[in-house]
Give the backbone structure.
Amino acid sequence: MAYFQNKVAIITGSSRGIGLAIAKELVANGALVMLNGRDEKRLQAAQSSINNHTDRVAIFVGDVAIEETANALISACMERFGKIDFLINNVGVSSRGNIGDLSPSVFRLLFESNVMGSVCPTIAALPSIRQTKGSILFISSLVAVHGLPGLAPYSATKMSLRGIVESLRIEEAKNQIHVGLIYVGVTEIVSDKEAIAADGSKTILASRSNKKVQSLEEVSSAVLKQLRKRTYLSVLTPLGKINAFLQARFPLLVEKIIVKNLHKFEEGNK
Ligand SMILES: NC(=O)c1ccc[n+]([C@@H]2O[C@H](COP(=O)([O-])OP(=O)(O)OC[C@H]3O[C@@H](n4cnc5c(N)ncnc54)[C@H](OP(=O)(O)O)[C@@H]3O)[C@@H](O)[C@H]2O)c1
């Protein structure tokens, strides 16, 4: 796609999963990409998995929820590629457990990762993205449509991205930056994908291979479409679209539907 030719993208949290799928599709469409993650080996493996394009793919190891590290990521990208057209705030971790069972540290950890991990790179990248009139895209989830049982910290942090996006769109309109938000549905996961358990420890999520979920490619295609069209909001999956439509008009009906299907949520949260 000509639109992405020689454009420069930073994708936070892109050593695997959705972030890596977005990176692969951007590179396949002619973009230059800066991958990011905290584990160096995983990041190197991700870089070499993008076949024949290693010269167009750089890596930056570090935790983007830390201000200095996020600043260093942006500087590294400017040094290597000279500009930034797209920042994709993809870093995010989920949690498991009802509020009554949760250690408050789970909320702190998720706000640190999912909110600060999006805010720090955004603030650092803004001056460069103003120059290219590029895009900042925030990867949210259908858990942000209505607070879900067993997922409160995850729902709360993904909902708060919307507030950031709405403010940023208004503030940066004069600079012609595109700011977008995408609500991703349940998607295929890597075999060792982690979430945060009620006591704050890490837990490995059950395989989704026997469930009907979105493929990584479906999600990455939706991301590229949103970047190209510079649209505000994408809600993925037919169920997600119905849910968002009803939530805006009849939130208590959505609550009733969730309560009626509680067993499905409990099963899905494993
Ligand atoms: N999978 C789904 O069903 C689904 C559905 C809706 C929305 N989403 C959202 O999509 C995004 C990606 O999800 P995913 O399932 O692909 O996740 P994943 O497989 O767990 O991958 C997360 C990536 O982020 C990196 N990472 C995590 N925290 C980081 C930090 N603080 N700084 C830098 N890198 C960090 C991880 O590498 P290291 O651990 O090595 O740092 C890894 O590369 C998340 O925002 C998630 O909430 C996912």
Q: What stands out?
A: The pocket of NAP is lined by residues 12-19, 36-39, 42, 63-65, 90-92, 113, 117, 139, 141, 184, 186-187, 189-190, 193 (CB under 6 Å). The chain has a mean pLDDT of 96. The first helix runs from residue 17 to 28. The CA atoms of residues 11 and 88 lie 5 Å apart.
